[in-house]
Amino acid sequence: MSNSMEQADVVDAFVEIAHRDSSFPIPLMVLVVTVFAEKLGTTPELLAPIIGARDKEIYGEPTLYTGDE
Predict the structure, then answer these.
(1) 66 secondary structure, DSSP code
(2) Which of 8, 23, 28, 34 could form a disulfide with 67 if both were Cys (CB 3.0 to 4.6 A apart)?
(3) What is the model's pTM?
(4) How many structural domains comprise the chain?
(5) Is residue 21 part of a domain?
(6) Closest C-alpha to 8, from 63, 65, 57
Protein backbone atom coordinates (compact mmCIF):
# COMPACT_ATOMS: atom_id res chain seq x y z
CA MET A 1 0.00 0.00 0.00
CA SER A 2 1.44 3.37 -0.94
CA ASN A 3 1.76 6.35 1.38
CA SER A 4 -0.79 8.31 -0.65
CA MET A 5 -3.35 5.54 -0.20
CA GLU A 6 -2.60 5.33 3.50
CA GLN A 7 -2.86 9.11 3.80
CA ALA A 8 -6.27 9.10 2.10
CA ASP A 9 -7.49 6.38 4.47
CA VAL A 10 -6.17 8.23 7.52
CA VAL A 11 -7.65 11.56 6.43
CA ASP A 12 -11.06 10.04 5.70
CA ALA A 13 -11.05 8.22 9.05
CA PHE A 14 -10.19 11.38 10.97
CA VAL A 15 -12.86 13.40 9.14
CA GLU A 16 -15.42 10.74 10.05
CA ILE A 17 -14.36 10.73 13.72
CA ALA A 18 -14.60 14.52 13.96
CA HIS A 19 -17.90 14.65 12.09
CA ARG A 20 -19.56 11.98 14.23
CA ASP A 21 -18.42 13.55 17.50
CA SER A 22 -17.64 17.25 17.06
CA SER A 23 -17.06 17.57 20.81
CA PHE A 24 -14.16 15.06 20.82
CA PRO A 25 -11.61 16.58 23.25
CA ILE A 26 -9.06 18.82 21.49
CA PRO A 27 -6.02 17.30 23.28
CA LEU A 28 -7.05 13.86 22.03
CA MET A 29 -7.64 15.19 18.51
CA VAL A 30 -4.15 16.68 18.54
CA LEU A 31 -2.73 13.38 19.75
CA VAL A 32 -4.50 11.42 17.01
CA VAL A 33 -3.36 13.82 14.27
CA THR A 34 0.20 13.72 15.65
CA VAL A 35 0.30 9.92 15.67
CA PHE A 36 -1.23 9.70 12.18
CA ALA A 37 1.25 12.29 10.88
CA GLU A 38 4.21 10.40 12.34
CA LYS A 39 2.94 7.14 10.80
CA LEU A 40 2.72 8.85 7.41
CA GLY A 41 6.14 10.50 7.72
CA THR A 42 4.79 14.04 7.87
CA THR A 43 3.92 16.62 10.53
CA PRO A 44 0.62 17.58 12.16
CA GLU A 45 1.03 21.07 10.68
CA LEU A 46 1.05 19.61 7.16
CA LEU A 47 -1.62 16.98 7.78
CA ALA A 48 -4.19 19.22 9.51
CA PRO A 49 -4.97 21.40 6.45
CA ILE A 50 -5.39 18.26 4.34
CA ILE A 51 -7.89 16.93 6.87
CA GLY A 52 -9.75 20.27 6.87
CA ALA A 53 -9.92 20.36 3.08
CA ARG A 54 -11.22 16.80 2.93
CA ASP A 55 -13.85 17.57 5.59
CA LYS A 56 -15.07 20.49 3.48
CA GLU A 57 -15.00 18.35 0.33
CA ILE A 58 -17.10 15.59 1.91
CA TYR A 59 -19.56 17.68 3.94
CA GLY A 60 -19.59 20.99 2.04
CA GLU A 61 -18.29 23.01 4.97
CA PRO A 62 -15.87 22.42 7.82
CA THR A 63 -17.21 20.54 10.84
CA LEU A 64 -17.41 23.05 13.68
CA TYR A 65 -16.00 22.04 17.06
CA THR A 66 -18.70 21.88 19.75
CA GLY A 67 -16.69 20.81 22.80
CA ASP A 68 -14.81 22.68 25.49
CA GLU A 69 -11.54 24.26 24.41
Answers:
(1) -
(2) 23
(3) 0.80
(4) 1
(5) yes
(6) 57
Domain that holds residue 36: 3-59
SS3 assignment, position 50: helix
Inside any domain, residue 37: yes
Q: Are 30 and 69 in contact (CB under 8 A)?
A: no
Q: Which of 65, 60, 35, 62 has its CA nearest to residue 47?
A: 35
Q: Is residue 41 part of a domain?
A: yes
Amino acid at 44: P
19 neighbors 59 (Cβ within 8 angstroms)? yes
**Residue 68 domain-assigned?**
no
Strand, helix or coil at 18?
helix
The conformation of residue 68, written as its DSSP 8-state character, comes to: -
Intra-chain end-to-end CA distance of the chain, in Å? 36
